[in-house]
Amino acid sequence: MGYISALDVLPEGLVEKIQEYVDGQVLYIPKIKSKRCKWGEATDTRAYLQERNRRIYADYQKGVTLLALSEKYFLTPKSIQRILRDMKGL
Predict the structure, then answer these.
(1) Is the pTM of this model over 0.70?
(2) What's the CA gap between 76 and 73, in Å, rounded?
(3) Separation CA 86–CA 50 (nearest Å)
(4) DSSP labels for the chain?
(5) What is the pLDDT of residues 23-82, one digit of tens each?
(6) CA dist., res. 8 & res. 41, Å (int)
(7) Do 48 and 72 have their domain in common?
(8) CA separation for the pair 58, 51 (Å, rounded)
(9) Does residue 45 share a domain with residue 21?
């Protein structure tokens, strides 16, 4: 997230009014809720994790142990259990 000068995008009168509250401070203005992305929509992370979880479940069905899955995918056994439980429910 980059910073832009308020003077470049806001009317001078509005900047003066804002300065009454936060003079010289960095101010974060959040996005409108309807314009926010859901988690993973802006990147391919969601798809990557879904594919990883499918591979974990497939390995488990082939007989790979929980501990071996944990070591292979660098996750805790508890995380592997959660993924397996979630994949069984699909």
Answers:
(1) no
(2) 9
(3) 11
(4) -----HHHHS-HHHHHHHHTTSTT-----PPPGGGPPPTTSSSSHHHHHHHHHHHHHHHHHTT--HHHHHHHHT--HHHHHHHHHHHHT-
(5) 888 888 888 877 777 777 778 888 999 999 999 999 999 999 999 999 999 999 999 999
(6) 30
(7) yes
(8) 11
(9) no
